[in-house]
Give the backbone structure.
Amino acid sequence: MADRLLFTKTGRAKYISHLDLMRTFQRAFARAGIPIRHTEGFHPHPFISIALPLSVGFSSQCEILEFGLLEGTPAEAVPERLTAAMPEGILVHRCWPAQRKLKELAFVNYILNFEYPEGRPQETESALRELLGRESLVVQKKSNKAKKGYTEVDLIPLVHGWSLECNRDSMTMDAVLAAQNPGLNPELLRAAFCDAYPQYTPEFVTFHRREVLDGEGRPFR
């Protein structure tokens, strides 16, 4: 049976790419002296898989890593030992046997913060509400498999819930998005907003993954 970790990725660590993060965990397991399962074959390597790889620049408090813990290390000792071998910004909070299938991971809760240091135009709220209230919002999404280099996707069916909170210099969107098959990267929402209302383009946007959810909206563990 596989095991899973729950970890956070914040601060400078959010700029670590997916592949580098995989290597970081491989080295951390070795430095912490935690024996894990390896693949078979001529060039075995540690069996490690991260569910729903996070985009570079996104922070998260709910990342899930799957691996195989071998005998010799109790699961409850893994978080502290592994965190001690990690770079700043990566904290391991929990280790447990994987019982639920990853395909049950249905939604992701993201926090998008649109920042306007010089002051937020009042019309930004009504503009974003208009965009998300449309019956359809078709955008082009890059695809290496498509002959044209992109596919078209309707974002509206992939947004399962949202709310807005506005301040003088920011607009925060709390959104529940489809996780997979297909999933929705919140960057597409930012791009769609800026394309539809270029006059309200924020100076920058931050993305934070707050929770991963099952089909009933409960935290996936």
